[in-house]
Structure formats: structure tokens, C-alpha cells
RNA sequence: GCCGGCGUAGCUCAGUCGGUAGAGCAGCUGAUUCGUAAUCAGCAGGCCAGCGGUUCGAAUCCGCUCGCCGGCUCCA
């Protein structure tokens, strides 16, 4: 008699050792049909495994995230099987599940997306065949024999411990695999191949070039459809696309990886920085600016010449080596070090919107997200050890305030001391405890990445979440125990002795270029009023009303509202359409009605029109929304 | 940097088998003067990314260079 305990505490009894499937079926046929695997006494395994003794079983179904992961791994096998049917000489390597689906690295001739239809058709056949997926266990030497003609599998086998090796078989296909897998190929219901690229065996450029084919799979066609719709939405929101359409910025071959900002892009840029300065002044920061071209001796002192040189642009001027700054900190160190500081002056919060250049590899450039020249909203805070906690807390609160203004949620991650690091245990202890104490007082949950800190100190990274649920690391707060040392910074303490200040680097937008790009995608180009490049579009009903329209626009401009008159001799419909496509948040039409009554007719981007709004109250409302930085325009009656 | 794909008008794209460049939108001109998502007509706009080669002839085929896009961490 075998007793199986279920998660609800219920016990099922069996005369013979049952398989997982038997147990599932004893619950109900319908339930069993949706099971993909089981967890027996904490061990994840296939449903067809026999349970030899008493144990606790939990089933993984098509509803569980783990179930999806297992099925995607099976999908990778189905894809590999299909590819082998079409390319019999292909050699398989590895095929894991990743966040965005699955891939398989295969040694085969280059495949492109044109080949996907054939591979997918073959996969579809395999799915329809509902081939049972069976686990087999063989001794290692037997596995070595089976795979004698498969160089990659042999190499993997050699890395595995001796003993039994599991092989999964479905029809004419088998693959070395840890498992588990879904019971049969029919579970792979909704799938699509997404992209193909080159990848190296073991990510090593000196090794063979493989073809990596990516796919995505779901249990339900609806989920696949939703996923594809998400990708389409992200494509539509792509900041490069919107940046071109709305005339915000561009890139040119003459300066690869360095953005040109157009007048409309600069309107947003300046609004971002105006706001940033407002909050930083309020938080007790002063603003500085350091040169972008500095001599080699500075970079030697900071350590960048030794450690960061491949990424730096250098020049020889009057036979002296210079480098364009890839970071603002060394300049900031010079500023702090140029005079004596009393403990009474600390903390010094010195902000700098600094333009830095980094020579990134050409292949990693990506719109505004990854550039070679960008501005950091940097700040260096110099303080005493007991100021660590309040200062970090102050940064976290500032971060919270600023991100909230954009409607961006975020989470925090703490990175601790890496294997290779400078500083004493005591210093790391003080530093890390200071960060933790600040995090505790701030009160949000955070993730800890052990050993992920910089060599010169621990850090807190801030990851924002945009309107599509994608996360981006923007802000970071890093403690630095190296630079104050290298620049021999000091302050005079209450004891009249020299002391080394604690220093942090922190950014909130991070790269302003990148943050700009994220905002474009987050808002899909439809910026809140305070950020919109053109806040009000004034549309005269006909050419005779153009002077009136201009007078309205002039009035708004005087109040500091960014306004544009559509002076074209086009139909009103056309002007409205173009204003909508240009995402102008307030569209004002000027006809005789408005001219005679001193009112305004306002159309917002949701298509709603309010007529007869008194000009004075409209102006007040607009200024109020701008100064409150509302995410959506509010207070308009009618 | 490496692998794959791509590069044609300001933008989006067509261009067959190698035969000498095309559309829509935007722009300009003229007509129209319109009440909330495209009025009509005309005009202009190109070293087909660059350089070299094959050819009687190259946007098209080949090579190199530059740039852009996707991928290059996920480990049976």
C-alpha cells in the first residue's frame, strides 16, 4: 500500500506503485489532462515517473508559471526535432528556456527568418502527432556511445558527473536533457519562432559559430496573441520611430551613437532639467560643472587610465595626453579638494549635469538607450560616516519624488561586496550597514545581489517600471571608498584632525538621453502637458481668422505656454488630424464664435471638445496643470 | 568587436531576369476658406550609403568600407 499526500493534506492510497499521472487521474480526469509535471518530495519530475513509496506530491499544471517553463523547454525540443528533420546534418548544442521564451543553439548553416515558416510547419506536424515524451536513463558510458558523433553533446557529457544520464525521446528524436518535460508534444499548442542570430559555443568567440533560433510558446493561442500584441505595441512605441515622427531627435552617420536633439526634443529636455533643478535645490544640492577634456594625469590618479581606457576618447594636444571624460567624478574630486572643508560644511551635495563620452562597441549602440555621448544627472555627496544613512535616505526619497512625477513605479536592489574589492572589512561593514539602515528606514522591500557591488563600494540600484511593465535600471547610489583616497580628500573634524570623507555618486535620471527615450516609450509620445514640446496648438478656422489665432497664441506664449499656430490654408479637419497625430495636448480652434465671445474651444487628445471656455480661466487652468506637472490634464469643464 | 539582416526623395516604401528611378505622405505654387482625424490640381525633390570590381550597360551581381536593426549573460 502506497500513501500519497496531496498539498491540501488529503491522502490517496494505491495498491501498486502509481505513476504521477495515476495520482492525478485519481483526483479527476480533467485535472490530469492539465497536469504537465509533478513535484515529489521537493523533486521536480515527469508525470509518468512511478512513485515507489509514500510521499508528498504537488502537481504542476498548465496554469502554473513552472508549467509554462517546462512546456517551453519541450517546445525547444520540438523545434530541434523539426530542424533536424529539415537539416539532418545539424548538430544540437543547448536549448534552454529564457525569460522571453526559449532558444536552441545549433551548429548548422545560417538560418534567417524566411526559413521560419518551414520550421514552424514541421513543428506543427510534430505537435499534431502528439508524440509521447519519454525519459530514459542510461549509464554515462552508454551515453558517450550514443553521442559518439555529436561533438557538442560529448563535450557536455564529459562535464557531467558519472552515473546515470537522462535522455528524453519523442518519436524519432532524442536529446540529452535534465527534464522534466510535458507528457506529449501536443502540449506545445501555441508557438512562434521569433528571431535567429549567431551565438558562440559556450559564448566564446574562439569557438564555433552556432545558429541561435529563438521562439516563444504558450498553452493557449490567446496568450500567444496577447504576447504578439505586446510586441507590436512596443514596436509602435519605439522611441526611434516616435522621435522621427514627432521631430524630437535624430542620429547621423557623422556622429554614430551621439544624438542630435531638435527644437521639439529640446523643449522636453529643458522641461526635464528645469524640474530636476527645482527638486535638487529643494533637497539641498548645489550645482557645478566640470570640463569634459582633462589631462592624462587626472585619469591616472583616478584609475581610469588604467582601468577604463578602452572606453575613453583620447587626444594629444601640445604633446600632452588628454581624455574626454567618461565619468564626472574625477572632476568632482578636484572641486571638492580645492579648499579646506569643515565637518560643519558636510554634507556637500554637488550636482553636475555632465556630458560624458564612452566608446561603446558599435554593435551595442541602440537609439537613445545605448549611446556614446550622454549627459548624467550626477551628484557627488561628501559626508561623515554617520551621515551615510540620512544621506542615502535623502537620495531614495528624492528618487521616489521624481519618478512618481512621471507615473513610474520602481524597485530597489542592493549590491554587496564583490570578491575583488578594495577597502577594509570594517569600511565595507560600515558602508553596507549604512545602506541597509537607509533602506530599512525608507521602508520598501529590496532585492539583495550578493557580491554584485563595484570594487570600490556597495550600491543601491533603482529599477523603474514603465507603462508596458518593462523594467529599466536608471538611478543608482554608489558608495565610493576609492576616490576620496586617491585624491586624498579630507575635512577637518570637531577634534581638529583631518578625516577622510565618505563619498557617494548618485544619478536619478541616469543618462538623460536614455531616460528621455524611456519616457517617449512610456508615454507613447503623448507627453503630459508640462513636458509636451507643443503644449497648445492654435487652429484658425479659415485664413481670415489667422490674425486672431496669432493673437491667442501670442498671449499664451507670453504666459510661457509653448504654442504653435497652424497657419496652413488647409481644412479644419486636416489641421485637427495633424494636431492629433503630433500629440499636441491642447488643440484650440479659433472661429468667429471665439473671436466675438472671448472664449476658446479646446480639444484634448482623447477627442473631447469643450466649447465656450473663457480665455482667462483656460489660461489659469493650463498654468496650474503645468506647475503641478499633472500626468493628465484636469479641471476642464463642459 | 563578432554573427545575421538591412541601407532607394525629409518620412514610409515599390523597383521583375542587369537595360539607365517610381508611389503615398511631408514641402512648394495655385485654386478652395472649410466648426473638430486627410479639399483639389500642379510643381519640385535622388551621386539608389561610400569606394572599387565584373559587364556594352549596375539601384540590381561581386569585394571592401561606413552606418542602421536584431542577437552575442541565461548552459544537459
Structure notes:
The chain has an 8-stranded mixed sheet with strand order 16-20-21-28-25-24-22-23. It has a 5-stranded mixed sheet with strand order 2-1-5-3-4, sandwiched between helices. The chain has 4 domains: 2-61, Ubiquitin-like (UB roll) (Roll); 66-222, 2-Layer Sandwich (Threonyl-tRNA Synthetase, Chain A, domain 2), CATH 3.30.980.10; 249-291 and 326-522, Bira Bifunctional Protein, Domain 2 (BirA Bifunctional Protein, domain 2, 2-Layer Sandwich), CATH 3.30.930.10; 536-628, Anticodon-binding domain (Rossmann fold), CATH 3.40.50.800. The model has no long low-confidence stretch (mean pLDDT 92). Helix content is 35%, strand content 28%. It is built from 20 helices and 33 strands. The chain binds one RNA strand of 76 nucleotides through strand 7, helix 6, strand 10, strand 12 and strand 13. Belongs to the class-II aminoacyl-tRNA synthetase family. InterPro entries: aa-tRNA-synt_IIb (IPR002314), aa-tRNA-synth_II (IPR006195), aa-tRNA-synth_II/BPL/LPL (IPR045864), Anticodon-bd (IPR004154), Anticodon-bd_dom_sf (IPR036621), Beta-grasp_dom_sf (IPR012675), TGS (IPR004095), TGS-like (IPR012676).
Amino acid at each position: 500500500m502506497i500513501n500519497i499526500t496531496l498539498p491540501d493534506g488529503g491522502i490517496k492510497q494505491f495498491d501498486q506503485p502509481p505513476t504521477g499521472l495515476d495520482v492525478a487521474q485519481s483526483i479527476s480526469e480533467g485535472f490530469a489532462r492539465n497536469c504537465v509535471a509533478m513535484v515529489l518530495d521537493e523533486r521536480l519530475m515527469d508525470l509518468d515517473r512511478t512513485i515507489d513509496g509514500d510521499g508528498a506530491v504537488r502537481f504542476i499544471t498548465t496554469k502554473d508559471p513552472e508549467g509554462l517553463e517546462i512546456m517551453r523547454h519541450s517546445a525547444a525540443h520540438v523545434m530541434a526535432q523539426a530542424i533536424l528533420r529539415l537539416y539532418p546534418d545539424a548538430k544540437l548544442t543547448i536549448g534552454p528556456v529564457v525569460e522571453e521564451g526559449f532558444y536552441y543553439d545549433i551548429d548548422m548553416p545560417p538560418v534567417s527568418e524566411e526559413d521560419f515558416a518551414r520550421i514552424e510547419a514541421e513543428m506543427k506536424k510534430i505537435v499534431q502527432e502528439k508524440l509521447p515524451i519519454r525519459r530514459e536513463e542510461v549509464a554515462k558510458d552508454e551515453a558517450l556511445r550514443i553521442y559518439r558523433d555529436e561533438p557538442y553533446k560529448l563535450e557536455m557529457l564529459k562535464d557531467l558527473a558519472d552515473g546515470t544520464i537522462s535522455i528524453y525521446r519523442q518519436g524519432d528524436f532524442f536529446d540529452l536533457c535534465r527534464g522534466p518535460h510535458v507528457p506529449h508534444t501536443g502540449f506545445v499548442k501555441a508557438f512562434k519562432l521569433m528571431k535567429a542570430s549567431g551565438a558562440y559555443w559556450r559564448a566564446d568567440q574562439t569557438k564555433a559559430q552556432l545558429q541561435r533560433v529563438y521562439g516563444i510558446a504558450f498553452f493557449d493561442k490567446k496568450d500567444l496573441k496577447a504576447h504578439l500584441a505586446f510586441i507590436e505595441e512596443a514596436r509602435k512605441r519605439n522611441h526611434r520611430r516616435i522621435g522621427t515622427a514627432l521631430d524630437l531627435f535624430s542620429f547621423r552617420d557623422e556622429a554614430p551613437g551621439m544624438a542630435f536633439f531638435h527644437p521639439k526634443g529640446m523643449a522636453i529636455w529643458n522641461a526635464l532639467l528645469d524640474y530636476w533643478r527645482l527638486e535638487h535645490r529643494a533637497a539641498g544640492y548645489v550645482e557645478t560643472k566640470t570640463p569634459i577634456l582633462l589631462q592624462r594625469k587626472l585619469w591616472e590618479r583616478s584609475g581610469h587610465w588604467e582601468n577604463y581606457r578602452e572606453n575613453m576618447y583620447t587626444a594629444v594636444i601640445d604633446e600632452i595626453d588628454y581624455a574626454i571624460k567618461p565619468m564626472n567624478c574625477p572632476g568632482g574630486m578636484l572641486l571638492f579638494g580645492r579648499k579646506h572643508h569643515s565637518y560643519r560644511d558636510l554634507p556637500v551635495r554637488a550636482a553636475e549635469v555632465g556630458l560624458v563620452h564612452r566608446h561603446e562597441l558599435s554593435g551595442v549602440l541602440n537609439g537613445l538607450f545605448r549611446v556614446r555621448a550622454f549627459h548624467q544627472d550626477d551628484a557627488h555627496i561628501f559626508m561623515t560616516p554617520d551621515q551615510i544613512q540620512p544621506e542615502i535616505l535623502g537620495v531614495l526619497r528624492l528618487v521616489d519624488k521624481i519618478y512618481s512625477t512621471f507615473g513610474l513605479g520602481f524597485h530597489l536592489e542592493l549590491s554587496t561586496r564583490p570578491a575583488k574589492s578594495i577597502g577594509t572589512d570594517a569600511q565595507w561593514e560600515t558602508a553596507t550597514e549604512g545602506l541597509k539602515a537607509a533602506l530599512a528606514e525608507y521602508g520598501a522591500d529590496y532585492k539583495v545581489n550578493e557580491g554584485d557591488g563595484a570594487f570600490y563600494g556597495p550600491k543601491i540600484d533603482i529599477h523603474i517600471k514603465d507603462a508596458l511593465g518593462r523594467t529599466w535600471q536608471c538611478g543608482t547610489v554608489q558608495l565610493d571608498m576609492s576616490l576620496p583616497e586617491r585624491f586624498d580628500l579630507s575635512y577637518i573634524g570637531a577634534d581638529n584632525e583631518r578625516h577622510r570623507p565618505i563619498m557617494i555618486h548618485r544619478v536619478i535620471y541616469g543618462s538623460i538621453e536614455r531616460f528621455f527615450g524611456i519616457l517617449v516609450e512610456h508615454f507613447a509620445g503623448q507627453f503630459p502637458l508640462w513636458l509636451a514640446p507643443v503644449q497648445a496648438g492654435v487652429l484658425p478656422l479659415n485664413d481670415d481668422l489667422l490674425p486672431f489665432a496669432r493673437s491667442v497664441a501670442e498671449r499664451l506664449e507670453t504666459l510661457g505656454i509653448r504654442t504653435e499656430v497652424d497657419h496652413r490654408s488647409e481644412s479644419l479637419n486636416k489641421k485637427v488630424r495633424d494636431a492629433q497625430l503630433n500629440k499636441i495636448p491642447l488643440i484650440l480652434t479659433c472661429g468667429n464664435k471665439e473671436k466675438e465671445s472671448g472664449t476658446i474651444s479646446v480639444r484634448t487628445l482623447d477627442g473631447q471638445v469643450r466649447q465656450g471656455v473663457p480665455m482667462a480661466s483656460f489660461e489659469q487652468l493650463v498654468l496650474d496643470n503645468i506647475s503641478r506637472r499633472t500626468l493628465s490634464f484636469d479641471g476642464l469643464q463642459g
